[in-house]
Inverse folding.
């Protein structure tokens, strides 16, 4: 089972690494980090380099493709090399997935036309302009397309996908393996529960994740 | 505020990237990924390369040090270059932190003597032999030492630390920024709630995370 995770400059690391940590534990999984040009990609903070080991051209038909988000997603929206890879991979994929604003790249590639999808909370309405039906939900499954909300939602998405692929027991064992029994110190992870000032602060900046 | 995150071969990526995603968003934070020898380190699955941009010798006195875990932690337990860096950094740090079996490295360096600490659930009893008092808790704060349970617990640890450093509002805004309103599909993230077969399966393998 070939799993291709797209890397690009100014991505948000956790968008990619959360799902990687889950999906790479699936029996038979072979995860490859890919980019248009292989090599080290710097994340949105500039503080971390992640290695893309292969070119997207080397993996035209992965079983699963995963597009993370982050400020660098903007540059992908009209990057024909990326969009045509996404289109081609989606044609033959078993699962086409995204985290955060990665779904906007799926949308720009045209694969969300008429599909239910989600993205980072502050970017949700952008999905509509790309032909998708935005759904305010942490994980959205529409056929073989699975999209996650912002950043940390990729972990929940990947566990959901793991259960679909390998059954509940495998997914539960992976969840125990990463000791995922979250205890956030605040109830601030959603615009519905966070302080209004936090919501305003993030809305005033550029959407990220 | 200098934050040094240790990388090494066969670490568990999420141990490092979860807290990085939170702590790098703190006002004034400068995160540097360090290793005894700079360069690309491969994670436990072999599928991901993370770049260590600096040598530990270049950052002897970070304000915060963070030691992630993973199978590669074993090799660090008697790696004097790593242990002496940890000891020296801890002498002057504001916060000394770990995720998962990273706390065993803190223990091997001698900095957990008489301290309350936690680690990956399957490795908890190993802390006692290193002079620490194991605590079955997701995040344990003892003075300036903050240890997290397995893998994904680093996110909760970092948000707790963010609140101590910069106040609740900043931590809440970061939590919203990474949309951390977890919805695990199963209640299987702890050995107390996971299927017994999952617990047995992981206990039979080598402790990881």
């Amino acid at each position: 089972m070939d799993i291709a995770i797209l890397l690009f400059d100014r991505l948000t690391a956790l968008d990619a690494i959360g799902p990687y940590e889950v999906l790479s534990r699936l029996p038979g999984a072979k995860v490859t980090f890919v980019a248009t040009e292989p090599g080290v990609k710097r994340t949105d903070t500039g503080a971390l380099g992640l290695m893309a080991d292969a070119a997207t051209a080397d993996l035209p038909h992965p079983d699963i493709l995963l597009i993370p988000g982050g400020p660098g997603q903007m540059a992908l929206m009209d990057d024909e090399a990326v969009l045509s890879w996404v289109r081609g991979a989606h044609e033959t994929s078993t699962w086409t997935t995204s985290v955060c604003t990665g779904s906007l790249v799926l949308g720009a590639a045209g694969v969300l036309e008429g599909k239910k999808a989600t993205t980072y909370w502050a970017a949700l309405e952008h999905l509509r302009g790309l032909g998708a039906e935005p759904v305010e939900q942490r994980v959205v499954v529409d056929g073989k397309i699975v999209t996650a909300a912002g950043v940390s939602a990729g972990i929940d998405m990947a566990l959901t996908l793991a259960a679909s692929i390998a059954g509940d027991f495998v997914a539960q064992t992976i969840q125990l393996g990463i000791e995922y029994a979250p205890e956030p110190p605040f109830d601030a992870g959603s615009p519905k529960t966070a302080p209004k000032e936090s919501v305003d602060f993030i809305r005033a900046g550029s959407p990220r994740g």
Remarks:
- The two ends of chain A are 27 Å apart (CA to CA).
- Chain A touches chain B through 68 residues (CB under 8 Å).
